[in-house]
Amino acid sequence: MALASNIRIQRKRAGLTQIELAEKLGVSIATLRRWEAGETAPTGTRIIELANLLGISPDDIIAGEESSGAAGHVSVSYPVSENSNGMLVYEGEGTRIELPPTEKGYEIFQRLIENLINKRKAIQENEIIQAEDQQA
Predict the structure, then answer these.
(1) More confident residue, 107 or 128
(2) Among 45, 65, 67, 46, which Cα is nearest to 56's?
(3) H or E element that contains 15
(4) How many Cβ atoms from other residues are within 10 Å of residue 93's Cβ?
(5) What per-residue confidence (pLDDT) applies to 64?
(6) Quick one: three-class SS letters along 20-60?
(7) Residue 66 has what pLDDT?
(8) Whole-angstrom Cα distance, residue 93 to residue 111?
(9) How far apart, in whole angstroms, are the C-alpha atoms of residue 77 and residue 92?
(10) Which domains does the chain have, with CATH numbers?
(11) pLDDT digits (tens, 9 = 90+) for 61-101
(12) Which terminal CB of the chain, N or C, has fewer other CB atoms within 10 Å?
């Protein structure tokens, strides 16, 4: 449900109506409404498209974090493209992964994003603890 409310919040912050955002994404208004109601969820590729259109990072949509440099924000980039064979390609963190543009491929991609977010949060929490220990 957090994903649904994050989509709605970020759309409103961008000053867009549901109709405007649906048109920019090339999806039906019914699809966007189902996303915002939590009835369905966008694929990993659609999350990236949403983020690009709204001028935010994908973790702002998934995790609801502020991308404006607020304290505690973890910035994660998602270097995803599509190769000539139509495969989704992720390159980052010393890894290259090619995923088929299927439902299972999108599920794996979404888990990859979630794992990156969790990894970055853990690193940041560890840095905060180390800084506090140095001050003590």
Answers:
(1) 128
(2) 67
(3) none
(4) 14
(5) 66
(6) HHHHHHCCCHHHHHHHHHCCCCCCHHHHHHHHHHHCCCHHH
(7) 43
(8) 15
(9) 8
(10) 2-135 (1.10.260.40)
(11) 776 644 333 333 333 444 455 666 677 776 665 666 777 76
(12) C
Output the six-digit token pair for 110. 């979404």
Does 16 or 3 have the greater pLDDT score?
Answer: 16
Whether 54 and 11 have beta carbons less than 8 Å apart is answered as yes
d(CA 98, CA 86): 10
Q: Quick one: tokens of 99?
A: 């995923």
Query: Residue 31 pLDDT > 80, yes or no?
Result: yes
The DSSP bridge pattern shows strands 95-99 and 80-82 to be unpaired
Q: Which helix (DSSP H) or strand (DSSP E) does residue 129 occupy?
A: helix 103-135
Burial class (CB in 10 A: 0-12, 13-18, 19+), 121: middle
The length of the chain in residues reads 136
Decide: pTM greater than 0.85.
no
Residue 60: predicted pLDDT: 75
